[in-house]
Each structure stands twice: as C-alpha cells, then as structure tokens.
Amino acid sequence: MQKRLKRLLLLVIVLSSFAVSGCNQGGIEKPYKESHFLMDTLIEITAYGPQAEKGVKEAFGEFQRMYALADQYDSGSQIAKVNQAAGSSSVAVDADIFAMVEEACQFADKLEGTFDVSVGPLVELWGIGKKGEFVPSDTEITEILPLVNYKLIELDKANQTIYLPKKGMKLDLGGIAKGYAVDKAIAKLQAAGIKSALINAGGTVRVLGTRPDGKPWRIGVQDPRNPDGVIAKLALTGWDTMETSGDYQRFIMKDNVRYAHLFDPRTGKQPREMAAVTMIMNNASQGDIFSTALFVLGVERGLAVLKNFPGVEAIFVTLDGKVITTPGLAGKVE
C-alpha cells in the first residue's frame, strides 16, 4: 500500500519555512488538514480559517458523492446503469453526471478525439492492474474499437438522459470525475468562507487564494522515473490548478515494455512518446481532460492544439527525459 500511495502523490507541494501542522507562529494560522483514500487515490485537503474543519468535511462529502455517482465498477452507480442499458434504453442521470459527459464530448471534438469517455470497453479489456501481465492481442483490440466512439453518445439535455446506442458500449469517467470533484470541493470550501486552501488529489492539485503568509503556492512536478525527485517547480500565480497524467501512475511491465493505463482511444493502444504531461490552468475537470489528451497527442501536436486555448499551459516530459514547456511558462518554471 505504501508503494502505491507513493506513486499516487504525483504533484508535490513545495513549502517554505512555515510549518503547516504546528501551532500558530508569526501570525500564521494553524491549518485544518484531513486525508482519505477516495476515487482510487489519496486525497488531502488543507484549509485555513475559522470554518476550515466544516469546509474540509463538506468538501470530502463532494468527493464521496461524486464517487458514488461515477464509479463504473459499482453496479448501483448511475454510470453503471447507463452502461448496463447500452443498446436498449436511455437513462436519466444526476446533473453532475450529465455535465461531465457533455463537457467531455465537447472537448473531445476540440482535442482531435484523443479524450473519449466511451473508452470503457478498452479499459475493461486491458484491465491494467487487474489482470496481471495480460496484454490483449491486436485482434482483440480491433474487435473492441467500434464500441469506442464519443460521437455515438446521445445526450438529451431537456430530459437529462444518456443513451449508448450499441450494446457493449461503456462510459468511463476516470479521466474527468476526479477533477470535476476537486472543483466541486473547492466550491464547498469557498461557501464556508475559506480563502486559503489546497487540495492534493493524486495527480490533481487545486489551490484557493494564496498561502496564509500571502505568498503563492509553489508546486513541484514529480520526476516520472524517480518517485522521490522533482523535475520542475512552479508558483501558481495566475493559475489555480496543476494536473498530471503519466505512465507511472498505473502500469504493468511485460517483456521490458511498459503498458500504462492511458490509451489512445483511436488505436486502443498506449502512446509511446510521453512519460508525463502536467497542465497549468484554472479548471480541474478540464485539466483532467487536457492532460490525458496531450499525453496522447505528444509534444508537437499538443503544442499546436494548445494555441487554441489561451492561458492553458503545459509541461511535457518525454520518455527520454526531456522537459518541454509551453511559451506561456517561459521564465516561470524552476
């Protein structure tokens, strides 16, 4: 379990001299901090202010609520019911589930189909972390691919229903649900009057305001080949979210080849250019989408696509260890 948690802490909070767990010193407030293993990752929330405990507990309530709605492995969840009804009927869903699927489909068009929430059959076929060293054959992948196509998903906004027209189609919100839940959790903290907080949910970090001493939060990006190393550092000034997708989060090794949980939905296979992509932006659910898509697109195409999204920045780490940043991060990455 410890090794697993170590791999899950993909973004490292870089703190200066003040202690976040000690008594008030130098006028700095004592934080309230809580951590839980939810949504298949370790989530830690640190908040400051008189209502910090209340806000943090309500924020965790959002993670639990979202997990209950979006866990495709729970037969009673709404996503599981949508998948079970594939090819037969539409399913009415919660507003948050509808919003996630709708947003994912909208961005899929803008990101050349490299992010696709209908990837469920591929995720199930590969079963990374669940089937030992199993690697499917090209034939098995080819048979599954017709079920992976976000353009087939039918969304009825008026009735808030989702319909998957082909039997065997399956939604997998693993690439958006956690980031969406982070945004919902931040809203709970704000509603409690909290002005300084940080959520670290595995590969997703979102901050609220500045640190209690007025300085910006500084985040370190983990070296994808060294769990104790930091490959880059950045102060979140002008942004509030950092989101990482990497081939070191969940993977198997077979015949000295790494097979990660990130797939190109167009081919059904793992991309072979990137080790990690970190997004720097102002929206956690979209950060989830972008980091996954740019991991598939690679550096050259990823940089070209990002020109259409002003203010969205990225740090690319290639398989051979090169670190490449978008122009907007020039002079800002340590």
TrEMBL record:
Its cofactor is: Mg(2+); Mn(2+)
Q: Which residues cross the membrane?
A: none
Q: How does it sit in the membrane?
A: Lipid-anchor
Determine the domain of life of the protein's source: Bacteria
Which GO CC annotations does the UniProt entry carry?
plasma membrane
Q: What is its subcellular localisation?
A: Cell inner membrane
Any single Pfam family the record assigns to this protein: ApbE
EC number(s) recorded for this UniProt protein: 2.7.1.180
User: Per its UniProt record, what PROSITE patterns does this chain match?
Assistant: PROKAR_LIPOPROTEIN (PS51257)
The yes or no answer to whether the keyword Transferase is present is yes
Q: Where is the signal peptide?
A: 1-21
Tell me the cofactor note. Answer: Magnesium. Can also use manganese.
Recorded GO MF terms: metal ion binding; transferase activity
Family that this chain belongs to: Belongs to the ApbE family.
Recorded protein name is FAD:protein FMN transferase
The species this protein was found in: Anaerospora hongkongensis
Upper lineage is:
Bacteria, Bacillati, Bacillota, Negativicutes, Selenomonadales
